[in-house]
Amino acid sequence: MANVRARTEVRRKPERARYEREVIEAILDEAAFCHVGFVDDGQPFVIPMIHARVSDTLYLHGSPGGRLVRLLASGAPICVTATILDGLVLARSAPLHSMNYRSVVVLGRPRVVDEQEKLRALEAVVDHVLPGRRAEVRAPSERELKQTDVVALQIDEASAKIRSGPPKDSPDDVDMPVWAGVVPLRTTAGEPIPADDLRDGIAVPSYVAAYRRGPAAPAHP
Amino acid sequence: MANVRARTEVRRKPERARYEREVIEAILDEAAFCHVGFVDDGQPFVIPMIHARVSDTLYLHGSPGGRLVRLLASGAPICVTATILDGLVLARSAPLHSMNYRSVVVLGRPRVVDEQEKLRALEAVVDHVLPGRRAEVRAPSERELKQTDVVALQIDEASAKIRSGPPKDSPDDVDMPVWAGVVPLRTTAGEPIPADDLRDGIAVPSYVAAYRRGPAAPAHP
Question: How much is the ipTM here?
Answer without folding.
Answer: 0.92
